[in-house]
Amino acid sequence: MAKRLLFGSLMILVLAVLFVGDAALSAGDNPVWSVNLRGLGFTILAGLFVLGGTVELDRLARNRGTTGSLGIAMLAAGALATEPFWGQFVGLDEGVLVMLICSAGLFLAALAQGRKWGTENTYRHLSGHCLAMIYLGGGCFFTVKLRLLGANGLTIWQQIAPLVMVISTVKCADIGAYFTGRAIGRHKWMPNISPKKTWEGFFGGILLSTIVSSLLAVISDIIPFGGAVIFGLVLGVTGQLGDLLESMLKRDGAIKDSASLIPEFGGVLDVVDSVVVAAPFGYMILSLA
């Protein structure tokens, strides 16, 4: 527990420095970066997370005999995740660009499948490729959208507030679920997927995420208080479902952690699992609010 708290705190500190540094280049009346370059730092970070996560997904798939084209999966997922930033320079509708990326990624993966393995296990290989695009590329697409949602803010906080609210709410749901489950967890939630998860932990996570989102609404003007309560409830549920999804993938791949990149936490997937699933819902609610 002490090591987990130590490395967790260090990870939060590093991310905070990166977020603030990225926003500082875009804030103020005379920012260092022009309007079109706002969010570049976070976009690069999100792209790196997607590439690393795709490598880990490929490792899980290979443990189950699925051998797709890793290079094409990384290219497609990375392009989709970073599209909100580079798409502004293309001049096409964002929906059209997203569909083009997905279509091109799928067709290239099919060509690679045909050249290497013919028709053998086509459904399995292409399904794994689509999972990387939608799960990682699509999830991180919305994290970049959240960063750009505050791109016109004059202060550092206004620049990163939507992104910080989503990540804080989701991760506090993880924390609330973990400690509530350890303290009073008795009734198993999904024992065939994650034996340690309990209903008490599930509702404890939702409670803490709702408290955190409500506090952020009170001390800032990100979202009205009523919307913040809904925000906390929705992200508390979807974030934990994201964690459950990654548990399913890891258990099917017969490994405990997706990698050993981060001590006491595992790999990229172990860090972003809840965020990539909750981010689309967070973006939807904040956009409406």
Topology (elements, then pairings):
Blueprint: H1 2-24, H2 40-63, H3 70-86, H4 94-117, H5 122-149, H6 156-184, E1 188-190, E2 194-198, H7 199-219, H8 225-252, H9 268-288
Antiparallel strand pairs: 1-2
Helix pairs in contact: 1-6, 2-3, 2-5, 3-4, 3-5, 4-5, 5-6, 5-9, 6-7, 6-8, 6-9, 7-8, 8-9
Question: What distinguishing features does this structure have?
Answer:
289 residues; mainly alpha; two-stranded antiparallel sheet; globular
What's the overall average pLDDT, rounded?
Answer: 88
Spatially, the strands of the biggest sheet line up as 1-2
Q: Please report the number of helical segments.
A: 9
Beta-strand residue percentage: under 5%
Number of strands: 2
Rg to the nearest angstrom?
Answer: 19 Å
- Detail the poorly predicted runs: none
Helix content: over 70%
Summarize the helix and strand pattern as letters: HHHHHHEEHHH
Rounded to the nearest angstrom, the distance between the terminal CA atoms is 38 Å
Largest sheet: 2 strands, antiparallel
User: What general form does the structure show?
Assistant: globular
Structural class: mainly alpha
What do these coordinates show?
It is a single chain. The protein has 289 residues and is mostly helical. It contains 9 helices and 2 strands. Helix 2 packs antiparallel against helix 3, helix 4 runs antiparallel to helix 5 and helix 6 (156-184) crosses helix 9 (268-288). The protein is globular and about 60 Å long. It starts with a helix and ends with a helix.
